[in-house]
Design brief:
Layout (H helix, E strand, L loop, with lengths): L8 E5 L3 H14 L3 E5 L2 H10 L4 E5 L7 H11 L4 E5 L17 E2 L6 H12 L31 H18 L1 E8 L2 E7 L3 H25 L7 E6 L2 E7 L4 E8 L4 H19 L3
Parallel strand pairs: 1-2, 1-3, 3-4, 4-5
Antiparallel strand pairs: 6-7, 6-10, 8-9, 9-10
Helix pairs in contact: 2-3, 5-7
């Protein structure tokens, strides 16, 4: 909760004027919040240029817009903005938002007596540092893999890579798709917890380093790192995108390994094209 004397500010981003009017009226009667409604992503972004909000309630079904992109855009504009999202149906967020630190979910129709407590709970949560990590310039890896040079991606490149990971996750029904640099998660589409994803990234980094050392001991040239592990509920497959970027997917049993390898390699090639210098 905001601990300053400034009045807590709530932003509603929804295309339905009747719905936002109802919420504004209710919140102004039942709380001391300052509430403002915006019917589009562009209008909400413009508001953040001149004002500061503590929390945004965003409808993922904005008319003519991608609500997920709107939520990401607001968080980019104000990194500490808390988010309550309204899913298209039910109370489950789409997998492409698994990497976005969301403080609450509001199912429709809302039960108004619970609304203020839900907002209070969201306001009590902090936004995780490092949310919406930008994909940076890969550094020099201990592994010397024969791969192309890469360059700094633009914000549009980030969107392309997010879309590639999302498409791969959907096609393979993956539990997690992770792009990592050494043991650092760069971006992900995942249903796993942050700790689980970080552990997977560490395992991948350790395996890549081991593969390089073995090649050096044997006096052989290191080929592009690739591994597949089966055990328990999942098949875990990793493939080097560049000298220190690795694409990994965790998939429940039932998807043929050949299909996993084929689609992962296609995605790695497309990511490499995004990063490749002109």
């Amino acid at each position: 909760m905001n601990t300053t004397n400034r009045q807590t500010a709530i932003m509603l981003v929804d295309s339905s004027e009747a719905f936002t009017a109802m919420l504004c009226e209710y919140l102004e009667q039942e709380s001391d919040y300052r509430v403002a409604a915006y019917d589009s992503h562009a209008a909400a972004l413009e508001a953040l240029e001149s004002d500061r909000y503590d929390l945004a309630i965003v409808d993922l079904g904005l008319n003519g817009e991608d609500g997920a992109d709107a939520a990401r855009g607001l968080r980019r504009r104000q990194p500490d903005l808390r988010l309550i999202l309204i899913p298209l149906s039910g109370d489950q967020l789409p997998i492409e938002l698994a990497d976005l630190d969301v403080q609450g979910v509001l199912s429709m129709p809302p039960f108004l007596p619970d609304l203020v407590p839900e907002i209070e709970q969201a306001l009590s949560k902090s936004v995780a540092q490092g949310d919406l990590l930008e994909i940076g310039v890969p550094g020099v890896s201990d592994a010397t893999l024969p791969v192309e040079e890469v360059s700094v991606p633009t914000e549009s490149d980030d969107s392309k890579i997010d879309r590639l990971l999302h498409d791969l996750a959907n096609e393979l029904n993956a539990v997690a798709v992770v792009l990592s640099q050494k043991n650092q998660v760069i971006t992900q589409i995942s249903l796993l917890s942050t700790d689980e994803v970080n552990r997977l990234a560490q395992v991948v980094a350790d395996s890549c380093d081991t593969s390089t050392r073995v090649a050096e001991i044997l006096g052989k040239e290191q080929l592009r790192f690739e591994q597949s592990i089966e055990g328990g509920e999942y098949v875990f497959y990793s493939l080097a995108v560049s000298d220190n970027l690795v694409l990994s997917v965790a998939i429940q049993h039932g998807v043929p390994l050949g299909m996993i390898r084929h689609r992962a390699k296609e995605t790695a090639d497309e990511i490499r094209t995004v990063f490749k210098k002109e």
